[in-house]
Amino acid sequence: MPDKITVAGVPVDTRHWIGGRRVASAETFTDVSPIDGRVLGEIARGGAAEVEAAVAAAREAFPAWAATPRAERARVLHAIADGVEKRLEELAIVETNDNGALLRSHRRGVMPRVAHNFRFFADWLLTLAHEDFETRGHTNEVSWDPAGPSVLITPWNAPLMLATWKVAPALAAGNTVILKPAEWTPLTASLLADIAAEAGLPAGVLNVVQGYGSEIGDALTSHPDVRRISFTGSVPTAKRIAASAAPNLTPLSLELGGKSPLLVFADADLDLAVDLAVEQYDNAGQVCLAATRFLVEESVAEEFTRRFVERASALTQGDPREETTDIGPNIHPRQLEKIDGFVRRAVADGARVVVGGHPGEGQYYAPTLLTDVAQDSEIVQEEVFGPVLTLQTFTDEDEAVRLANDTRFGLAATLATGDTERAARVTERLVAGTVWVNCFFVRDLQAPFGGSRHSGVGREGGTWSFDFYCDVKNTVTAPNGWNDHG
Q1: What angle do CA 144, 145, 151 make, to 5 degrees?
Q2: Is 439 tagged catalytic?
Q3: Is a pLDDT exceeding 90 seen at residue 136?
Q4: For 60, what's the count of Cα atoms within 13 Å in the CB-facing half-sphere?
Q5: What is the 3-state secondary structure (H, E, C) of the chain?
Q6: If phi over 0 gives left and psi between -120 and 50 gives alpha, with beta otherwise, what is residue 194?
Q7: What does the angle CA 302 – CA 303 – CA 309 come to, to the nearest 5 degrees?
Q8: Is residue 288 among the annotated active site residues?
Q9: Cα radius of gyration (the chain)
């Protein structure tokens, strides 16, 4: 197996990154581009031995990194951000070829956000503090102690951005990291390891282990030397991780996707509402936050649907490397089969196809909208993770909220209304970690992020990230010297 492959002119190392050096494996797995099915390369396939080596490297590097002054940690994170910006075009090209998302989005939005993730948490670290407070004259001082080696398991739909949402705060907090990228999209994690090393991150502070989750996941999440686990992915995998981590009581942060609603009231700006609706096809529908369930007030449903179909039918689906493409491929033949299965079963169950409803050539699925769907149907209750949306109607706020909350998920909700009082009433009643009013996918890193119900456990972002990646300590000091026992 060659140590490096070339993806659209960009060299990428195919080996793991452990303890500050490249490590090969006896076995490999094949990485395939969803754009056209071509083989990108053979990737080192880790197992128990690589996991043990990575955890050992992280454990050895932890004391020195934890003791590194905040200002120095922040400097290194800013240097990583510099490296990302320097190689932004290469990262964008590799990521598009590896996961099929739009190249223009990677260039203009995703990769700049990757750099911002490092800069934000570097700066937040330098201002991280609570005001001291008093209890009967005793001073309480809150501090954040680095927790230790952290396992970060990331998905394939936005590989580098979602990885760095975790890597940046974990490193800022003073933890060492074992990053396990999704096996369908491993390449930019390898490039991140190079960038971090060039930025001066000490050996063993960031480790990247590649492989199939079933082969290395349990070894990572059950390891007694792991102090934190952060995972983004499916509910079944999260349950397995929780069971694996339970004997060691390892703290978990879990972001598990959703079945989020878009509520459109009759008083909404319908052009804005349609804009928000069409945006749900972003990344070929492979967005955990996507509002895949349209709930539209009955009096405007016909007009909303007419405008939506007009807009959706005009979208260009094709090669994501082309500037004019709006929707690229889905990640894997297995995912495409899953998406089509959802649609076929829904139609058999009585759903009506308003637009789309069929696969195209290769790994492309036509942007789809289904209506005449029952609230308890599979297509309404289960996450498809593809360009498939449903439309239901409601007659009043109570029905809208009831339908919106009637799933096992609670990650996000989007609301379109022209009435500020209605927005306040409805958002208060929605079960969701994030609610967007007349906007979508606006995320400030200082805000808490996570889900309710089966959409996750815990919150990350801003101080919440440090609360998770650290052991939070409160020191209570007596007011009159060491002999005062209160």
Answers
A1: 110
A2: no
A3: no
A4: 13
A5: CCCEEEECCEEEECCEEECCEEECCCCEEEEECCCCCCEEEEEECCCHHHHHHHHHHHHHHHHHHHHCCHHHHHHHHHHHHHHHHHCHHHHHHHHHHHHCCCHHHHHHHHHHHHHHHHHHHHHHHHHCCCCCEEECCEEEEEEEEECCCEEEECCCCCHHHHHHHHHHHHHHCCCCEEEECCCCCCHHHHHHHHHHHHCCCCCCCEEECCCCHHHHHHHHHCCCCCCEEEEECCHHHHHHHHHHHHHHCCCEEEECCCCEEEEECCCCCHHHHHHHHHHHHHHHHCCCCCEEEEEEEHHHHHHHHHHHHHHHHCCCECCCCCCCCCECCCCCHHHHHHHHHHHHHHHHCCCEEEECCCECCCCCECCEEEECCCCCCHHHHCCCCCCEEEEEEECCHHHHHHHHHCCCCCCEEEEECCCHHHHHHHHHHCCCCEEEECCCCCCCCCCCECCCHHHEECCECHHHHHHHHEEEEEEEECCCCCCCCC
A6: alpha
A7: 90
A8: yes
A9: 23
Q: How many CB atoms lie within 10 A of CB 28?
A: 17
Give the per-residue pLDDT at 486: 47
Tokens 């223009």 locate to 104
Question: Could you tell me if 396 and 245 are in contact, meaning their C-beta atoms sit under 8 angstroms apart?
Answer: no
Per-residue pLDDT of 399-425, as tens digits, reads 999 999 999 999 999 999 999 999 999
Taking the C-alpha atoms of residue 49 and residue 216, their distance in angstroms, rounded to an integer, is 9
Summarised one tens digit per residue, pLDDT across range 48-75 is 999 999 999 999 999 999 999 999 999 9
With tokens 């096809």, the residue in question is: 281
Task: Count how many residues are written for the chain.
Answer: 486
| Start-to-end C-alpha separation, the chain | 68
Among 50, 183, 255, 297, the one annotated catalytic: 255
According to DSSP, the residues that pair with 296 across neighbouring strands are: 264, 393
Q: Which of 288, 297, 383, 460 is catalytic?
A: 288
Q: Structure tokens of 270?
A: 């319908």
Q: Which residue in the block uniquely carries the two structure tokens 């967007």?
A: 436
Two structure tokens written together for 14: 């195919």
User: Which residue has tokens 């689906």?
Assistant: 317
Instruction: Assess whether pLDDT exceeds 90 at residue 42.
Output: yes
Are 122 and 465 in contact by the 8 Å Cβ rule? The answer is no
Give the C-alpha distances (Å, rounded to integers) separating 458 from 45, 129, 249, 288.
Answer: 31, 20, 15, 16
